[in-house]
């Protein structure tokens, strides 16, 4: 009887695992790709990353190995698209140690989160944190300016025994405008708009923004002196550069105006600048340097921690991929460059990984040549190619190649789309052709849930895309010429390939997943 019971117990213990294994095996690769994407987003949810980074035990707060004593002395400010969820979790953890707070968030975000079932990211009615909405269309406006003024006021009133907790995420630059007088808000807006319109990168844009602002480029940390400053940063910039994310308001920097002039000259804007901007840039030094503030004091007073990033999203995706029976490899969290080149790279990697015999050496050469164009280091490409071939030779089933970043689209048409949908369409075409990789699946999605001005985050494609489109009378190249990827995917098979997670409340750029069946399901290449 005892043996029967123990057999029964062991069978019941294994049952959930068996059922799970069976359920996983029944899941299509497309469904698995969607689950892996959801896990990437889940791993960088604002509440999740704040919970991971703030450890509280009584009145002791531990952040990134540094401890702070809580004595109802914590003031909270924040700015960016994801700080609402970060603030509500911080308040849950820190309770009444928060004296007061102000966060600057995009117009309509509270309603949008409520409508997307993300009510837990909103602040309660009794919250000590005030939420101010501004920066309509991602442009600094009078509302964002008022929020920035309130944030500056909080910071300047702090004493040595206070702690300023600063929550930072993408979109923070537009939500914290505080131009150095005599520059007006309109003049600052004009400079940023012209730069963005001329194709300046976020690095170039923020180099200029932080030189014209009282709060960016370390200005906020400077205002908060002598209080301690703890900044928690959700990164939306490749490489997670603290001085550039939201233009680095808590990162002390000493810069003369030379590098700013270089950017302005590059885009031929130096002659058309407003007189006020020229006056500010004419000053020898834009901000008090470390020596004026006491270098050691500055460095121990301000703590900046990246708590969420594309790399962290990819780690979370990797764990989920493994649970779903896939073999994860991270290619890079820094993919950039034109979507055409990025699509080309993924197409080549797919053919390389799926080739039934050793792939020709020129394929590897072409892959390595594309690296610098798309921000991927040669050693990452070497490693990925080696792992892909090992997986193939040893019959390891499906490999999930994961990458992230923010490629760019050359906008030449008038259609609707986004960089993720356009990338997915281009990769779908790369996987097709004369010898289609029918079973290879590619997903590209924006972690904020919104790809360009559409309600989709991206799309999922495979080697059968072209044939499917053709059979439905859709000419993919016409859609591509008109940057109309959203219309393409909406019309193809009633939109089944669109990725529609809704607004996610976070933003760490985009995630790309390439699922490569390394078994012999492919025709000989
Ligand atoms: N029709 C289109 N087809 C392809 N891409 C488009 C189209 N229209 C806009 N885009 C791209 O969408 C991007 C802007 O959308 P979105 O707001 O999602 O990105 P973002 O500015 O990087 O913001 P975030 O960092 O919050 O994702 C730009 O990169 C732009 O080139
Ligand atoms: O706000 C900004 O400056 C951009 O989102 C980059 O962080």
In short:
Residues 33-281 form the MOFRL-associated domain. It catalyses: (R)-glycerate + ATP = (2R)-3-phosphoglycerate + ADP + H(+). The chain is 43% helix and 17% strand.
Please tell me about this protein's structure.
The chain has 525 residues and is of the alpha/beta class. It has helices at 2-26, 29-42, 46-53, 83-94, 109-115, 142-156, 185-197, 202-211, 219-224, 258-266, 275-281, 290-293, 295-301, 310-323, 339-354, 361-370, 378-393, 419-431, 465-471, 476-481, 485-491, and strands at 55-57, 60-63, 66-69, 74-79, 98-106, 129-134, 163-169, 228-234, 302-308, 327-335, 398-405, 441-446, 458-462, 498-499, 510-517. A six-stranded parallel β-sheet has the order 6-5-4-7-8-9, sandwiched between helices. Strands 10-11-15-12-13-14 form a six-stranded mixed β-sheet, sandwiched between helices. Strands 1-2-3 form a three-stranded antiparallel β-sheet. It folds into two domains: 46-178 and 213-254 and 289-308, Glycerate kinase, MOFRL-like N-terminal domain (Rossmann fold, 3-Layer(aba) Sandwich); 311-517, glycerate kinase, domain 1, CATH 3.40.1480. It is 43% helix and 17% strand. Bound molecules: adenosine-5'-triphosphate and (2R)-2,3-dihydroxypropanoic acid. (2R)-2,3-dihydroxypropanoic acid binds next to helix 8. Its EC number is 2.7.1.31. It is an enzyme of class 2 (transferase). Residues 400-510 form the MOFRL domain. Belongs to the glycerate kinase type-2 family.
